[in-house]
Design brief:
The complex is a heterodimer. Chain A is an alpha/beta fold. Chain A has helices spanning 13-28, 52-63, 85-93, 108-115, 131-145, 163-172, 192-200, 212-215, 235-242, 249-252, 283-302; strands at 41-46, 67-72, 98-103, 120-125, 152-156, 179-183, 206-209, 221-224, 260-262. Chain B has a five-stranded antiparallel beta sheet with strand order 2-3-1-4-5, with helices on one face. A three-stranded antiparallel beta sheet of chain B has the order 6-7-8, covered by helices on one side. By secondary structure, chain B is mainly beta. Classes of the chains: A alpha/beta, B mainly beta. The A-B interface holds A 84-86, 103-108, 110-111, 125-128, 193 and B 103, 105-111, 113-114, 130-136.
Amino acid sequence: MARSVIDIPDLTMEELDRLMDTAEDIIAHPDDYADACRRKKLATLFFEPSTRTRLSFEAAMYELGGNVLSVTGANSSSAAKGESVADTAKTVSCYADIIAMRHPKEGAASVAARNASVPVINAGDGGHCHPTQTLADLLTIRREKGRLGNLTVGLCGDLKFGRTVHSLLNALSRYDGLKFVLISPEELKVPSYVKSDALKKKGIPYTQTEDLEQVIGDLDILYMTRVQRERFFNEEDYLRLRDSYILTPEKMKKARADLSVMHPLPRVNEISVAVDNDPRACYFKQVLNGKYMRMALILMLLGLKGGTQA
Amino acid sequence: MNVDSIRDGIVIDHIAAGCGMKLYRLLGLENLEAPVAMITNVVSGKMGRKDIIKVDAAIDVDLDIIGYVDPGATVNIIRDGELKEKKRIEMPEKLVNVLFCKNPRCITSCEQELDQIFCLTDRTKKEYRCAWCETKASNI
């Protein structure tokens, strides 16, 4: 079984640091990595709609000089004929050197990793994990703040179903001096098991509130999330909670001058477009950072180096 | 069947009162043709009340299942009417095809040939989670 990344705890702190260092080096010296993955193929298996994550992986591989084999949508693949994830993983291992997979079912990436003979990167498995988004988040925080510890981080919106929130909480909880402010409606609070594993067991201070405006002035980072229609079984609940929090220029006036506003995207209406021009808005930088971290991860899992690391 | 004297079989003793039937069902003892005695609410000096299961056949039982239901139980192996071995039970680190994931979004919900694997994630709370989607096991 090849080394795969299904969730952030699959990576040690040292590996996370090394990935961020590699990403920084790629940003500084992109030409030095242009042939790092020459003759290597990435298979992107996306059994669930996604634009940015798939394009990010594909752009990452192309910028490393590699090639991409792509499957989008379960309807256009052998999954439509009833093939299991295990068989798909074994088959694709014969064609590609590394796999990035998104699947609507939770745990699908683990099944693929146990059966593939090449590394598998989980590009999102239902509401479970999305580790490369978290890698993008970590690099963004490090680049914006110069550190990953000693920060007050506000997480706002759908904290119940939002897998990026759970992953980020778990990832940041490994650093020192963090404080979390969890901002959500009652129905979308962080599940107790996530709080227990990521915060309580590690003695990390946190507060919970429903009022964004009351706490925005305390934050170094504000991580906004979308209320995801696809995670609800009930349309009525979705519609009721969708507009719980909308970040506007008015609310931004109460925030610190050095706040960094992040969002895993896509957004619906939880951040007003008028905030985009605020220098504190980092969400499009986050997208770019995601590509660099995916490049670094592909290199690491393929055992390749480039640039000044060669 | 004389429940006091088994010649070749097993006695699962010190089962917490009320857990005997759950164990009987999970071990599939209802499918045995051999005599099985389920004794509930027996007065116990140590436990107050306990359940006991006696099986009058030399079968292998899944110790992981017993460990999951009640790690305090003991298994006595009887051969030729004598106590041959007394097994202490521990909470298993992993359960395979004992519990079933109830998360409708779990990959096991659509790929039924996958093993249902649950891992012990919190020994003090006796908490198991699905190895695939990490959903907490509900009590059975």
